[in-house]
């Protein structure tokens, strides 16, 4: 995007010679000789007072305040990833930092393809690197009490053609037991930007032997606000903002 400066101030001061108010004195020295064609008037006998002219000096200063910098989608993608990396999915961010993420996401939305639901880039494995509401990905395991007992290692969403979604939250229970919570769902396009996913009851696995299902079905609706080969942004029906980064 182009750089535009909101304001600039230019101040210039001039310093030069001061005007001479006294009239210059002319000194004439005329020799007593006759003037004729063979004897023209002598030159160089008229002298004027010497004037010293100071060189003209220009002092200028330029200031630019509040520059508005517009960037392209690649710069915005790099910016939003730098804001959410190593923040435990957004848990460690301050309210002001969450606002910064939301501002970049709003700019990226301007570059979204017209029909993101139909974009083939939607398929693949994605890391859930940010959510503005910590409990949205992972439910109670991501609440303040849940994070105390179950440390989140990673959150992954896999979307497989034509309409399968698999969410996985890898955890470490009580500081020494590895586990995983997984949900399998069916994706349905509601329009060009909104999708609906109906999930089966979640499955919990703790350690090598404990594995069971619990609860019932769940449903989520998500608007795809931006997608490319690196990131995917989504906005939930309750206003939560998601940032997904494609797994390499």
How would you describe this protein?
This protein is mainly β and 248 residues long. 13% of the residues lie in helices and 42% in strands. The protein is built from three helices and 16 strands. The protein has helices spanning 73-84, 95-109, 144-149, and strands at residues 3-4, 7-15, 27-28, 46-47, 57-65, 68-69, 124-131, 150-160, 164-173, 177-189, 194-199, 203-206, 210-213, 218-227, 231-236, 241-246. The protein has an eight-stranded antiparallel barrel. Strand 8 and strand 9 (164-173) form a beta hairpin. Helix 1 packs antiparallel against helix 2 (95-109).
What is this entry, summarized?
By secondary structure, the chain is mainly β. 13% of the residues lie in helices and 42% in strands.
Label this structure with key terms.
248 residues; mainly beta; 8-stranded antiparallel β-barrel; two-stranded antiparallel ribbon; 3 helices; disordered N terminus
Report low-confidence residues grouped into runs of 5 or more.
Answer: 1-68
Order of helices and strands: EEEEEEHHEHEEEEEEEEE
Q: In one word, what is the shape? A: globular
Which percent bin holds the helix content? 10-25%
What percentage of amino acids are in beta strands?
Answer: 35-45%
Structural class assignment: mainly beta
Number of helical elements: 3
Biggest sheet character:
8 strands, antiparallel, barrel
Average the pLDDT over all residues and give the rounded result. 79
User: What would you report as the Rg, rounded to the nearest angstrom?
Assistant: 38 Å
Give the neighbour order of strands across the main sheet: 7-8-9-10-11-14-15-16
Q: Span between N and C termini?
A: 29 Å
Quantity of strands, as a count: 16
């Amino acid at each position: 995007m182009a750089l535009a400066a909101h304001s600039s101030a230019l101040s210039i001061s001039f310093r030069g010679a001061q005007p001479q108010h006294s009239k210059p004195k002319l000194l004439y020295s005329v020799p007593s000789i006759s003037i004729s064609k063979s004897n023209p008037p002598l030159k160089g006998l008229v002298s004027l007072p010497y004037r010293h002219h100071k060189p003209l000096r220009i002092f200028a200063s330029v200031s630019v305040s509040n520059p508005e910098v517009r960037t392209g989608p690649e710069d915005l993608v790099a910016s939003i990833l730098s804001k959410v990396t190593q923040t435990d999915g957004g848990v460690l961010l301050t309210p002001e930092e969450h606002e910064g993420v939301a501002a970049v996401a709003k700019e990226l939305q301007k570059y979204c393809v017209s029909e993101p639901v139909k974009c083939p880039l939607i398929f693949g494995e994605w890391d859930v690197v940010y959510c503005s509401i910590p409990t949205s990905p992972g439910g109670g395991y991501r609440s303040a009490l849940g994070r105390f007992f179950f440390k989140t290692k990673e959150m992954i969403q896999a979307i497989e053609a034509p309409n399968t979604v698999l969410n996985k939250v890898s955890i470490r229970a009580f500081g020494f037991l590895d586990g995983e919570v997984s949900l399998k769902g069916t994706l349905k396009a509601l329009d060009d930007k909104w999708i609906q996913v109906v999930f089966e009851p979640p499955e919990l696995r703790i350690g090598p032997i404990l594995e069971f299902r619990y609860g019932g079905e769940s449903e989520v609706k998500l608007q795809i606000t931006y997608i490319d080969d690196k990131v995917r942004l989504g906005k939930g029906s309750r206003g939560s903002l998601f940032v997904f980064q494609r797994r390499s």
